[in-house]
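Project standup — Tuesday

K.O.: blocked on the structure for the chain from last sprint. Re-posting the sequence here as requested.
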Amino acid sequence: MLYLITLGFDEKFAIRSMVSKGLKPDDEVVILMPEGSVGYSQSKAERAFNNLKQFVETVQPKLKIIRVEVEVRDLTSSVAKIQSVIRSSSQREIYANLSGGMRILIIEVLLALVLLGIEAEIEIELEDMEATVKLYSSYFFKEELDWTDRIILSTLLNSEKSVHEIVSEIERDLAESDSQPPSRVTVWRRILELEKKRLVDHRNIGKMKYYKLTNKGEFLVKLTRKG
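H.V.: unblocked you, prediction finished:
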């Protein structure tokens, strides 16, 4: 896993996230910091980095940790530099903790991920450490969904279903309306497209496939449903 950590004065958010996720020897940790002392007390930033580095080296001595400083006042160069770091990593799974550091640096990391079109798990811990909000970079990707896509996704909101169950539920829901329900073949084809968009996932039970919403799919359905 590639860890992207924005760091400011305090390393506690980064350490808590690493403890929660569980560091592995083949992980890579990238610590993102503003270049120089832009808006920062350099000594506090250095102390936070050294404490974090010591923690990582204690927990996983062989783990690769990289410090990357970006010129946060130059949006283009900052995003390009972060993108280069992401591209150069051999890790396929990406986790970004954006709880610390400057707000502009956090935005630059988000922009880098979104413009690359890369799926990454993102966590932001509240300042009072009472809760952590989890989201995914794909939440920012624009999806073109028509009526058929949306009604299929809506049927999966509360439970996983087979194609047959999805078709049956849509037919029941539209029984008293003027709308024509999509055919079984149409539903099946659309589900394959929704899987490609990472809005739907499936698991096999015997010879049957059961489909469910991904985190992104659930997020979109709850925000766009009427009523």
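K.O.: great, moving the ticket to review. The beta strands are 2-6, 28-34, 64-70, 94-97, 121-125, 132-136, 200-205, 208-213. The chain has two domains: 2-140, 147-224.
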